[in-house]
Amino acid sequence: MEKVLHFIDGQFVESADGRTFDNINPATGEKIGTVAEGSKREIDQAVAAARRAFKTWGKTSAAERSVILHKIADLIEANLEELALLETADTGKPLSLSKSLDIPRSAYNFRFFGDFVKGMSTETFEMEGVALNYALRRPVGVAGLISPWNLPLFLLTWKVAPCLAAGDTCVIKPAELTPMTATKLAEICKEAGLPDGVLNVVHGFGPDAAGSALTEHPDVDLISLTGETSTGKAVMKAASSTLKGLSLELGGKNPNIIFADCDLEDALETTIRSSFVNQGEVCLCGSRIYVERPLYDTFVERLVDKASKLVVGDPLDPKTNVGALIGAEHLDRVEGFVTRAVQEGGRILLGGKRPEQLAKGAFFEPTIIVDVDSSCEITRQEVFGPVVTIQPFDTEEEVVALANDTSYGLGATIWTSNLKRAHRVAGEIEAGIIWVNTWFLRDLRTPFGGMKQSGIGREGGVHSFEFFSELKNVCIKL
Ligand SMILES: NC(=O)c1ccc[n+]([C@@H]2O[C@H](COP(=O)([O-])OP(=O)(O)OC[C@H]3O[C@@H](n4cnc5c(N)ncnc54)[C@H](O)[C@@H]3O)[C@@H](O)[C@H]2O)c1
Ligand SMILES: O=C/C=C/C=C(\O)C(=O)O
């Protein structure tokens, strides 16, 4: 049984009132440990520690911080097996995915920002003969980092690495459903020589709990959240009273647009991934598939055939492609969406139910639904599960309108061999991240984030530093 503790000012501690909550493995339904349940008291202690540590960490050089970030990356790589097992036990995702995606990318997040910070520059503007302006980049202070359960260490380190690289200190509030790798990260940071108080972890819940205590805290300067759009709204409200800087990476309902002139094999192979990888619990998953009419029947038939071959099962089995959803509550939610899609006229071509032989865990079959339109709930709301819809379209204008008919604007995928059309459609889609003939291909220097209700701000490369640091202009009269 794992006992997951907070990490405050360099110490692993229980909650002052001794409260804990259970940690459940969603693939077995079994309790695998207890987690310290933090409240305002632990958040206060962690913020105070982070503020004290900022006095020295904020004054270290980029080169010193870079060395520590690389050590953290080394240690994540050295602990890959253990971290992957913890991640899979918490989430239910295939161990093969934790090993190939979650943990390697977590290490790379530190390596990338450890390198990037050494090459940072600022701007200079000369007013010829009058004055010289130059900008200085300075850390902001204490950041609250709030992460989701779907890619726990991956998305947490995507915030922690630039935060530390920029010279800020942090208080992390991991998702309550996936606490283990955050505490393990704290151990790694300590071993890498990160000074006490620079990184703190407080476990617990969101509303009226550790999460809201962090977002309301007067001594926290920044909040970076990845989570649901409704959480983003609550966090924005809470952060407004003390005017904190906000970065919000929220939900998506991403279109996957397939023109008849695409490379069909490539489109099918990648669509299997963009639909069902991580049980569809990736904010970038292309859950609304639009196929140009001449290809529609073939595409639907081939996609159903390929998806039917995906192995749903024990996350520890190397043959498994689709593991368990995050928990019983989420499983009910996903199933509810499918039931209502059928009530609205949707036809299930594959899946749509819990696999009978896996009744103990939160498993759901890869599901493909047709005969829906943009008035149906299933095409409008984020399901965050292994469920996609497919609709035919006739013209480019029509599909652009369909793709944009959503309150979200995170990602989109376009499949075509027509170069002009690819550029044209990419320019028209209202989303922050557009992939053409690929999906989830990431260059960490590029801006990453959502339009509309998918978020505020961008992460990645210099954009992360824009958030985690302040620029001040110095004007010198000549
Ligand atoms: N845009 C992106 O990059 C991205 C990436 C991954 C996930 N997501 C989104 O995240 C969602 C799934 O993750 P989730 O269910 O963990 O999200 P969630 O919003 O339920 O929780 C995210 C985090 O916020 C905390 N939280 C919840 N309410 C809070 C409050 N009132 N104050 C402070 N903290 C609060 C939670 O405890 C958790 O740590 C999906 O909507 C998905 O699209 C977005
Ligand atoms: O579930 C959401 C996935 C987000 C991915 C990233 O933030 C990234 O690749 O940097």
From TrEMBL:
Active-site residues, Swiss-Prot/TrEMBL: 249
Every Aldehyde dehydrogenase domain range: 12-474
SUPFAM superfamilies cross-referenced by the UniProt entry: ALDH-like
Keyword terms, alphabetized: NAD, Oxidoreductase
Xref: CDD domains: ALDH_F8_HMSADH (cd07093)
Keyword Metal-binding belongs to the record: no
Domain of life: Bacteria
InterPro entries: Ald_DH/histidinol_DH, Ald_DH_C, Ald_DH_CS_CYS, Ald_DH_CS_GLU, Ald_DH_N, Aldehyde_DH_dom
Secretion signal, residue range per the UniProt entry: none
Protein family: Belongs to the aldehyde dehydrogenase family.
PANTHER family: 2-AMINOMUCONIC SEMIALDEHYDE DEHYDROGENASE
Protein name: Aldehyde dehydrogenase
